[in-house]
Amino acid sequence: METHRLRNILHPDLLRERLASEQRVRTTLSFYRYVRLTEVEALRHALYEEWERLGVLGRIYLAQEGINAQVSVPTANLEAFRANLDGREAFRDVPWKIAVEDDGKSFLKLAIKVRRKIVADGLTDDAFDVTDVGRHLDAATFNRKLEEGALVIDMRNNYECLIGHFEGAYLPKADTFRGAIEEVVEMLRAQPAQGSEQPTCTVAPPDRPSSPTEILLYCTGGIRCEKASAYLKHHGFANVNQLHGGIIDYTRQIKAQGLESKYKGQNFVFDERLAERITDDVVSHCMQCGAPCDRIANCQEASCNILLVQCPECARKYNDCCSPSCREIHQLPPDEQRAWRKGRNTRSSKTKAINDPEGLRRRIREEEEQLARTGTLHPEIIQAQA
User: Fold this and answer.
1) pLDDT digit string (tens) for 217-244?
2) What homologous superfamily is domain 125-264 in, according to CATH?
3) Which residues are identified as catalytic?
């Protein structure tokens, strides 16, 4: 097969229609492995051809340092997919993490990309020993150590922890992995006194010892904690642990063993679902009205696309957009939307999520007032139509 054909060229709307009409049951799963790979481009092409025949959809990153994959596989082809992976020494017996909630529509297409790293962490790997990682803990041990007072740290981006996190976790404000890990190092070095307020995405953690003896790291599936634990150990924090398999496998373990979930709320995922529910706890609020809510969504104005927590009522009020300004554009006919967006950068390419809900609510009030006075927030549209 010609390599230029080893990629999707269909429009997302067509892919959604095709997936909606598909009769096959699908299983969403993820896996990663740090392993030395060679001839990565050739491997990428081979995997695309083989996995396309199996009906695999998903997002896979390959690099010389390994593989990071989130995929949706026809359930009837799971054994064949397992055999395909095991047929390569580099991927043999790589552990899978099955999605907690799965509607079969987590991915629209198969995308396999060659990258410099399998996680865009922004770190210089040769500056520290990436193999000197923390101790891997199962769910029961993680729970016990949390109850004993160990310091638990969320290694995800700020917008991921908006809708769910472990009880008492330190939640970095940064929206990148590098920003988060640097913030964590600074926090640990500062060693605030017992009872000091800690920065979080949603709630302040309880009082904790000023000199925690143990550190517990967690992320979605475990891959970011591999780098984070090694980075912390490099900076002198010796007693570092990490949740084996991340939130996804933690959920599987607590269900199988009948344990209490110390993780509350939803788990943010990087696919069409955006989130999967772990517990019924609602730990966040609608960014537009302030009501308790953990429904996360993208602004549907294509040049914005920013993530926000938005309740169903506000979704209806603002037509699935983040603001009256975006709503006005989104309500235009498609051809007028495209003309307005021409030459504009996507807002979410700079900022992934709303990080100032009060500022957003203030902006909404100001825009609604202007809209009532002038009838539009985009006079350039009126001028273009005249």
Assistant:
1) 999 999 999 999 999 999 999 899 999 9
2) Rhodanese-like domain (3.40.250.10)
3) 219
